[in-house]
Specification:
By secondary structure, this protein is of the alpha/beta class. 47% of the residues lie in helices and 11% in strands. The chain contains 13 helices and 10 strands. The strands form 3 sheets. Strands 3-2-1-4-5-6 form a 6-stranded parallel beta sheet, with helices on both faces. α3 links the parallel β2 and β3. α6 packs antiparallel against α8, α6 packs across α10 and α6 packs across α13. The longest helix has 41 residues.
Length: 363
């Protein structure tokens, strides 16, 4: 699952020589798909560092970008688009559940990019539809991003580079990211680095929703900390036995306790940060669970073993999301009913100055 998948590429040799005078980062057209935190950060940082490049940030037509995104793009000269224009390279920064649709959209575009980089920290198979002749590259990040009250970015673990697989196909993405001021490195331990970040996210992201706590709050609560421990230990048992992760495990520390220490240290570094999955829950958006704890349940099923801790966490969070949606729908219905009643009373109110019949009574 974490191995690099080469997708019908015919450009290996060209990929190694991508940095020609015509297509160097400062002359490139870069399409960033996904106008969330990470996509906006990448697009605005790249345009600021490479003023002669063309950086486009694509948002979904049904979900216009939030005010902070529009303001940042306007300030940095990033053009917001709701379609797929021609580009030299593309970075897909959407949630993993939207990666397949984004790749399919690129495949249907008249001029797809030569390099498509999927930026994600979950576990997922290759997209079923991908642009013919393009190179597929995976990328994992150790950071997280929030908007400050003034609209700027608050970046956690900014100094840690974005990791890419040690392939020639990954060179264009590595070169562009570094030129854009986003440290990036092709690393032979890429599979383990992605798996390590996955362990952090799968331990904490859905748990944050279940408990309504940020990373620091979960660690400070003994009951929550114990439940995260159970989820983690179950996850480790399943993933250790997953044959698709064999290469990634080659680079891992020897014991589960050592890895547990790494995961908990990472959570401590996030402190008061809420995972992005919690932000999706708060906004009532679909949750990225299939590539997190959902993968543990899926892999456990393939192995013929149960994963009750991870399955229960998913069920609890999805039930909580549904209850939240129902509550929001009920509030909207009540508001609509009040508005309709007010409109009715206004429409049928007697006009001023119209004589009104006196009630019957003794003369």
């Amino acid at each position: 699952m974490l191995r690099f998948h080469r997708m019908r590429t015919t450009r290996l040799a060209a990929g190694a020589k991508w940095l020609s005078s015509a297509t160097a980062p400062e002359n490139a057209t870069c399409l960033v798909i996904g106008a969330g935190h990470i996509g906006t950060y990448l697009a605005t940082r790249a345009q600021a560092a490479l003023p002669t490049a063309t950086v486009l940030l694509k948002y979904h037509p049904d979900f216009p970008p939030r005010a902070e995104v529009r303001d940042l793009c306007a300030a940095h000269g990033v053009r917001l688009v709701d379609h797929v224009p021609a580009s030299d390279l593309a970075f897909i920064t959407t949630k993993t559940m939207d990666h397949d649709a984004a790749c399919a959209e690129l495949a249907d575009a008249p001029h797809p990019p030569r390099t498509v980089t999927l930026v994600h920290n979950g576990l997922m198979p290759p997209p079923p539809k991908f642009p013919e002749g393009s190179d597929l590259v995976r990328c994992c990040t150790m950071g997280s991003w929030d908007f400050n009250p003034d609209g700027s970015f608050k970046v956690h673990n900014k100094e840690v580079p974005w990791f890419l697989p040690p392939t020639e196909e990954a060179r264009p993405a590595e070169a562009f990211l570094n030129a854009a001021g986003v440290p990036a490195v092709r690393d032979e331990q890429f599979g383990w680095r992605q798996l390590k970040k996955y362990l952090v996210n799968t331990t904490a992201n859905l748990m944050s929703i279940a408990t309504d706590k940020n990373c620091g709050g979960m660690l400070a609560d003994p009951d929550v900390d114990l439940r995260m421990e159970r989820v983690f230990r179950e996850m480790m048992a399943v993933l250790r036995a997953d044959p698709t992760l064999a290469d990634a495990w080659r680079w891992a520390p020897g014991s589960d306790d050592e890895i547990r220490g790494m995961v908990w240290a990472a959570l401590h570094s996030y402190k008061d940060h809420f995972p992005s999955t919690y932000a999706d829950y708060s906004a009532g958006r679909p949750l990225e669970h299939a590539s997190l704890n959902g993968y543990v349940v899926l892999a456990a099923g393939r192995q013929g073993v149960p994963a009750p801790e991870n399955a229960a966490l998913i069920d609890e969070v999805l039930a909580k999301l549904e209850a939240k949606r129902c509550a929001v729908a009920a509030r909207l219905d009540r508001a609509a009913a009040r508005e309709a009643r007010a409109k009715h009373l206004h429409t049928h109110a007697p006009s001023q100055g119209t004589p009104q019949p006196h009630p019957a009574g003794p003369s």
